[in-house]
From TrEMBL:
<keyword id="KW-0472">Membrane</keyword>
<feature type="transmembrane region" description="Helical">
    <location>
        <begin position="268"/>
        <end position="287"/>
    </location>
</feature>
<dbReference type="GO" id="GO:0004984">
    <property type="term" value="F:olfactory receptor activity"/>
</dbReference>
<keyword id="KW-0812">Transmembrane</keyword>
<keyword id="KW-1133">Transmembrane helix</keyword>
<keyword id="KW-0675">Receptor</keyword>
<keyword id="KW-0716">Sensory transduction</keyword>
<feature type="transmembrane region" description="Helical">
    <location>
        <begin position="201"/>
        <end position="223"/>
    </location>
</feature>
<comment type="similarity">
    <text>Belongs to the G-protein coupled receptor 1 family.</text>
</comment>
<keyword id="KW-0552">Olfaction</keyword>
<dbReference type="InterPro" id="IPR000276">
    <property type="entry name" value="GPCR_Rhodpsn"/>
</dbReference>
<keyword id="KW-0297">G-protein coupled receptor</keyword>
<feature type="domain" description="G-protein coupled receptors family 1 profile">
    <location>
        <begin position="39"/>
        <end position="285"/>
    </location>
</feature>
<dbReference type="InterPro" id="IPR017452">
    <property type="entry name" value="GPCR_Rhodpsn_7TM"/>
</dbReference>
<dbReference type="GO" id="GO:0004930">
    <property type="term" value="F:G protein-coupled receptor activity"/>
</dbReference>
<protein>
    <recommendedName>
        <fullName>Olfactory receptor</fullName>
    </recommendedName>
</protein>
<keyword id="KW-1003">Cell membrane</keyword>
């Protein structure tokens, strides 16, 4: 990757410089990251191997869990390793790679959440046309478009990052590389680039949140025409989705839709949506979904049975 300045590496200040607190950071986020990877991969394996989870909703959940694992991996391992290091150096190329991965999988999660909301809308509001509208071919095309959209968004972020000249201090007051902390180090007027950032990431977060909330309001309003049992099942599914939307988009909107100012809680807010949300998603989708729990039980029963026969 070609750089356009004299800076070849940065120093990440992380969440804290206190040695004791750094050990706590290591323990806490190692547990969080391990839980995220295990939980999301368990959902991925369960959906892939289960015959009862073949509907479009679980097809999209498969990709949401995959995006969650990769999204958390783009930041958490670096934070965990750096918590044991005295000087947390990240090279320019590694920094740019992290910016790309962070926005690629973050955007993928946003687009998959929109697809899941669209799936629920069709299933509840247009049940007779559901098999035709949400066919496997259509779902595959939608996922491919989500991958392409995520790639375009990430390329746009990288182009903005590569335009930043760095010629002064190389201390990044963050635990990962992102455009906001990099803007503070650039030796140029970053007003235009910040405006582009807000119009890109900020607009995606805000518009997606509004679209999702409107869609779920429409869905919940249409549930009054369903039977009590159908209304209860649909309400349970939609509630899970709404919880995920709020806990993911709230911090994103806070970070990406404001002027380039710094707040003390910025790093903790970023931790919540880059590490916290991917950790919570498997819990939300398994604890509130009987079909996923039953499929997991069958998967483990088959595995234990096959192991005992050996």
């Amino acid at each position: 990757m070609q750089q356009n300045n004299s800076t070849t590496e940065f120093i990440l200040l992380g969440l804290t410089q206190d040695p004791m607190k750094k050990k706590m950071v290591f323990v806490i986020f190692f547990i969080f990251y391990l839980g995220t990877v295990v939980g999301n991969l368990l959902i991925v394996v369960t959906i892939k191997t289960s015959r009862t989870l073949g509907s479009p909703m679980y097809y999209f959940l498969f990709y949401l869990s995959l995006a969650d694992s990769c999204f958390s991996t783009s930041t958490a391992p670096r934070l965990i390793v750096d918590s044991l290091s005295a000087k947390n150096i990240i090279t320019y190329n590694e920094c740019m790679t992290q910016v790309f991965a962070l926005h690629f999988f973050g955007c993928m999660e946003v687009l998959v959440l929109i697809l899941m909301a669209f799936d629920r809308y069709v299933a509840i509001c247009k049940p007779l046309h559901y098999p035709t509208i949400m066919s496997r071919r259509v779902c595959t095309i939608l996922i491919v478009l989500a991958w392409i959209g995520s790639f375009i968004h990430s390329i746009a972020q990288i182009i903005l990052a590569l335009r930043l000249p760095f010629c002064g201090p190389s201390l990044i007051d963050h635990y990962c590389c992102d455009l906001q902390p990099l803007l503070k180090l650039a030796c140029m007027d970053t007003y235009v680039i910040n405006l582009l950032l807000v119009s890109n990431s900020g607009a995606i977060c805000s518009s997606s949140f509004v679209i999702l909330m409107i869609s779920y309001i429409v869905i919940l309003h249409s549930l009054r025409n369903h039977s009590a049992e159908g209304r209860k099942k649909a309400l349970s599914t939609c509630t899970s989705h709404i919880i995920v939307v709020i806990i993911f988009f709230g911090p994103c909107i806070f970070i990406y839709t404001r002027p380039p100012t710094t707040f003390p809680m910025d790093k903790m807010v970023a931790v919540f949506y880059t590490i916290g949300t991917p950790f919570l998603n498997p819990l939300i989708y398994t604890l509130r979904n009987a079909e996923v729990k039953n499929a997991m039980k069958k998967l483990w029963h088959i595995k234990i049975t096959s192991e005992s026969r050996r």
